[in-house]
Specification:
This protein has 143 residues and is mainly α. The protein has six helices and no strands.
Length: 143
């Protein structure tokens, strides 16, 4: 009996007391919990770095957008540049077509405009000849 008492009365170490005092949830011991914490900390750090980089990229894009908007406004305010664009046949044609297409798309009652994209006839005033000579001239133009 003395032997049984000595086994039961063996002092418990500090580590064993800590193990009994704390519960580790789904982890079997403190080492497993610490390992999971380290993994979680590494993932948290990685995600924060990605977030920081995404914010920097978005900030750079916003700065570039603002710069481009400022350049565009300065170009549109430059009368000399606008005059040169209007004098360029290709630029002028594209601008007029873009304008007319935007108007015909927004107004359902708009008069159809002759464009390469739409393929519709242009609205024109019908010329009614007043004399035989005018009729002859119109007939020659048509034929």
């Amino acid at each position: 009996m003395e032997h049984e008492n000595t086994i039961q009365n063996t002092p418990v170490t500090a580590d064993e007391q800590l193990e009994k005092k704390f519960e580790y949830g789904k982890f079997k011991d403190a080492d497993a919990l610490y390992s999971a914490y380290q993994s979680l900390e590494a993932e948290f750090t990685r995600r924060n770095q990605e977030l920081k980089q995404a914010k920097e990229t978005a900030s750079e894009a916003a700065i570039k957008t603002t710069e481009l908007q400022n350049k565009l406004h300065s170009i549109l305010d430059d009368e000399e540049f606008i005059d040169k664009c209007v004098q360029n046949e290709q630029v002028y044609s594209r601008a007029v077509l873009a304008f007319l297409n935007s108007k015909s798309n927004t107004q359902t009652d708009a008069v159809p405009v002759l464009t390469a994209q739409m393929g519709q006839p242009a609205a024109a005033v019908i010329a009614k000849p007043k004399t035989l000579e005018e009729a002859k001239r119109l007939a020659k133009l048509i034929l």
